[in-house]
Specification:
Length: 193
């Protein structure tokens, strides 16, 4: 598992005024992540992260809350590992589901978007969604989702996204410690348009 970015990268994206921003350790890793931009990119800036930003501070925050020393540790580290690998695969979607429930009912889908932001979709039918509204989740605009959605800006750490995914599954379906690490998590590669 990497998820230990040391630099912030900004790319110009061909064909428009868009930029793509991401956290990464090396330029090569950043260029892989920038594959999500959906068009050729050119490096605009590479800035070393300070001690108070990026993956390191997000990891320290989780350690400070005791989340890397309790029953959720294996689930959280598994999510971080899978999300970290997925952001280096162009157009990959991380699909997470729990136990024997059908994926279309309890899947959490996480994807890096064309500007480097994150898109999270919780496809669940549970009525237990009240706590999610406190962390900026709302009815998902994706007509196929029938659940909740959230967007997170570029440069959000994989550690933060993993924690939010874990919290969403816990609040919506009552996820128990060890449930994710006991089941597979898939990387789904959508067909190109």
């Amino acid at each position: 598992m990497r998820a230990d970015a040391t630099h912030r990268y900004e790319f110009d994206v061909d064909g428009g005024r868009r930029t793509f921003e991401c956290l990464a350790r090396t330029r090569a890793e950043a260029e892989k992540i920038a594959g999500h931009a959906g068009a050729p990119t050119r490096l605009r800036a590479r800035v070393r992260l300070g001690d108070d930003e990026g993956d390191a501070v997000a990891r320290r925050h989780l350690q400070g809350r005791g989340l890397l020393d309790n029953a959720w540790r294996d689930d959280l580290i598994l999510l971080v590992d899978v999300l970290d690998r997925a952001r280096c695969i162009e157009r990959a979607v991380t699909a997470i589901w729990v136990g024997s429930a059908p994926p279309e009912e309890t899947a959490l889908l996480v994807q890096t978007m064309e500007d480097g932001s994150w898109s999270l979709h919780l496809r669940e039918q549970s009525k237990r969604t009240g706590p999610l509204t406190k962390i900026d989740w709302e009815r998902c605009p994706d007509a196929h989702c029938r659940g909740l959605g959230a967007k997170r800006p570029p440069l959000t750490s994989v550690w933060s996204i993993a924690l939010e995914g874990l919290a969403a599954l816990t609040a919506s379906i009552g996820l128990r410690p060890g449930a994710l690490s006991a089941d597979p998590i898939d990387l789904v590669l959508p067909e190109r348009a």
